[in-house]
Amino acid sequence: MTGLDISFYILAIFLLGSSALVAFRPRPIEAALWLILHFFLTSILYVIMGSHFVAIIQLLVYAGAIVVLFTFVILLLNLNPEELGLKTSVSWASFVLFLGGIGAVLLCLHVATPELLAPLSEVERASDFGSIESFSRALLGRYVWGFEVAGVVLLLAVVGVGLLAYKKPKGSKLS
Amino acid sequence: MIETDLLAEFWRDSQVAFPVWSWALSAVIILSLQIVGVRRGVSVGAVGLCLLGMIVYAIWSFDPALNESLYFGSVNWDPLAQSLNGLALVISLGVYLMSLPGLFSDSKLFRLNYHQYPEFLTCLLLSGFGIAVAVSAVDLTSFFLGFEALSIGTYAMCGFFRSQIRSTEAALKYLFVGAFATVVFLWGIAMLYGATGSTGYADIAATIAVGPEPLVLLACIFITAGLAFKFALIPFHFYAPEVYDGAPTPVTAFMATAMKVAVVGAGIRLFWGVLGDLSHLWLPMWLALCVLSILVANVWALQQRSLKKLFAFSSISHAGYIGLALLVADPSGSEWPLFPVLSYITIYSLMSLGLFALVTWMENRDEVFLIEDLRAYARKNLGRSLLLAVFIAGMAGFPPFAGFVIKLMVFQALIAQGYVGVALLAVVGSIIGAIYYLRLLVSIFMSSEESGAASGWSGMLDRLYSIRLVVGLTVLVTCIGGLFPNVFADRIFGVLGRSSVNTEISRDSSE
């Protein structure tokens, strides 16, 4: 067992722990903060796999944008545990049971299919694997159509939200 | 230089694929007009002009010999994509014309919500873009994104009548169920990619031909289920009746037709293009879903009270027939495989458009349109009742109308390919279906009781004659399609069928 392996298992334990905390903390805002820790740990996982670009994107998009969005929504709704009907935190027994269950499933998977977790061989991993240049070449070359269509889908989402949620300022007349 | 080569290819492909991205272009034009702040009527008119222009261009540029792979193997611009894109354009224009009179309505609901009509139309255009992308996709990424664009636009349009709880509820339900369907889709796509290592259909098909892996089989199941969700086949139909009922009627028409067009286009490519070698796997599943839809939907339709829910179940059973037609589109099985499915989807879409246009014209949006509201409607308004009768007879598949011919073609194709039992079950299903259609007709024309509520409604004020235009044209199609099926067969599908499989005229139209 190399140092990399050991660090992977330590990381895995922390990952599971943080994801369980996301699920079991009674306060939504606390859960969102644990989610940030979870995303940081996941991005370390990507670094171990050698894809630095994905690791950065993971941090920027998920921890940077999506959790901010979550937090924003939580603050907007302004829910507290009493309103949610959660007086106390979930019991430790179920917490441990959850972690144990998930961990057992993952361990079984790992034992059954060791090749899933095997690091990419040097042959498979091209020298520029995960680099920004190869990524952008793929995005604007082979996948340019999907890239552009995704842009249109985002535009549509913005328009759709406007259609559903736009409120006319008070006092403006109906046309 | 590599870069200039890429640019040149991109530019050349963009010229061929103009009918696809012109949808997005028109949406951007409308949005720009809105940002500049022109009057609402100007942008609404611009949508109509854009749609008309695109239809003219689609007809003008239709080239049955064209079969090009564009954008590095993401898009295949062939007769199938061209014709389904044209159909999507016609559907969108129909929906546009159906929703147009709401601008002039005096009712509070319409005045309140039509404030955002240009945004609604932008969603319509971008959903249409989704159809065009989905039917021309030969890559898993563009396939998925096309369906997403179509779905997201439809969710938003469902909730167009924001001040009405029914409409909002429909949008929310559709969003949740649709998100679930999306996940199922993605699951299948991810497995297909994981098993074959590529997203292009051609590469996937080549890998599958070598030897299927267990992952591919799972992918088959999930993609079939995802398509069944979008198609609203039983048992993946549960959202359809309530969403159809709650959504604004033009949007209901869009959902009942456009979604099916996209599924047909994508399904033909996926099932017969990519998974054709594995047809023994997905075919029984798809067959069961379709037969179940035809039988069960028709039985459930018998118990409905709401008119639009009835039509929703009717559209589920029609999805079953279209699914069966998709199934007999086996390129190796018959000499003209795409003929039944394309004629069915075209005629069905036009009939549905007309039917829902008529409902838009008659309905009082503040109340749920119940079947009993139509009681003795013929005494109040014979003209509309007769039009309704034509569409109902067409949907039911009564002989002189187009609905009969398309069903007959599907049954013929089924029997020709040896699915005699399936054909029998489908016939039984359509006989059950005929019962509730007949009951509706009897209630409209022969009821001696006092008139239902619909006779008292003033209905939509059709000031621009746009609804009448849609209804008139689709009635014409419903009648002519039944009386002279060869007109359709030769003029519209003849070119397509011959070019895509390179055979001479099929037996259906030469008879």
Name the beta content range of chain A: under 5%
Cα-to-Cα separation, first versus last residue of chain B: 57 Å
Q: Please provide the count of β strands of chain B.
A: 2
> Main beta sheet of chain A, described?
none
Into how many domains do the coordinates of chain B divide? 1
The outline of chain B comes out as globular
Q: What oligomeric assembly is this protein in?
A: heterodimer
Helical proportion of chain A, percent range = over 70%
Low-confidence stretches of chain A: none
Distance between the termini of chain A: 72 Å
Tell me the number of strands of chain A: 0
The helix count of chain B comes to: 22
Could you name the ranges of chain B where pLDDT drops below 50 across 5 or more consecutive residues?
A: 498-511
- Give the helices and strands of chain A as they follow along the chain: HHHHHHH
Q: Main interface pair?
A: A-B, 25 and 43 residues
Residue share in helix of chain B: over 70%
Give the mean pLDDT of chain B: 87
The secondary-structure class of chain B comes to mainly alpha
Largest sheet of chain B: 2 strands, antiparallel
